Amino acid sequence: MRTEITPGQTSDYLGFDLVMVDNLPCPRVLLADRGYDADRMRKKMDARDVLTQIPMRKSRKMRVGVDHSLYRLRNLVERCFNKLKNARRVATRYDKTAESFLGFIDITSIRLWFRHLST
C-alpha cells in the first residue's frame, strides 16, 4: 500500500500522480471512482498495460465501458479505508506533522494485516 498526503481541496487528479509512480510494481488492474475519470490517466495506465476500470463522468463525451463484476472488487478497498478510520487517531488526524500521521497509518495498516493473517 502506498500513501501520500495532499491538501484537502486538492483534486484526485493530483493525488493520482503521487501514488502511481513508475518505481512501484506495475498493477494489472486499476479500480477507481469517477474522480479519476480523465483521458490523461487512462492513457498513462494503457502505456503501462494496466486495465482501467473507472466509471465515466456524466459529462464525458466519449463513452467508456466498465466491467461491473470486476469493479465490485473496489468494495474491498473501501472497506479497508473504513477499517483504517476505525483508529480514532487516523479519522481525526491528531498528529501535527505529515510524517507522524503517515507513520500511524502504516502502523494501523500493519495491525490490520496481522489481524487478517491470524484469521
Description:
The protein is mostly helical and 119 residues long. The chain has two domains: 1-67, no CATH class; 73-119. Helices cover 50% and strands 5% of the residues. The chain contains six helices and two strands. The chain has helices spanning 12-19, 39-47, 68-71, 74-85, 88-92, 98-118, and strands at 29-31, 51-53. Strands 1-2 form a two-stranded parallel sheet. The longest helix is centred in the C-terminal third of the chain and has 21 residues, at 98-118. The chain is globular, with a radius of gyration of 16 Å. It starts with 11 loop residues before the first helix and ends with a helix. The model has no long low-confidence stretch (mean pLDDT 83).
How is the topology of this model organized?
Blueprint: H1 12-19, E1 29-31, H2 39-47, E2 51-53, H3 68-71, H4 74-85, H5 88-92, H6 98-118
Parallel strand pairs: 1-2
Q: Enumerate the spans where pLDDT stays under 50 for 5 or more consecutive residues.
A: none
Radius of gyration: 16 Å
Query: How much beta, percentage-wise?
Result: 5-15%
What's the arrangement of strands in the largest beta sheet? 1-2
Question: Helix- and strand-based class?
Answer: mainly alpha
Question: How do the helices and strands follow one another from N- to C-terminus?
Answer: HEHEHHHH
How does the overall form come out from the CA principal axes?
A: globular
What's the structural domain tally? 2
Average pLDDT across residues?
A: 83
Q: How many strands?
A: 2
Report how far the terminal alpha carbons are from each other. 21 Å
Number of helices: 6
Biggest sheet statistics: 2 strands, parallel
Proportion in helices:
40-55%
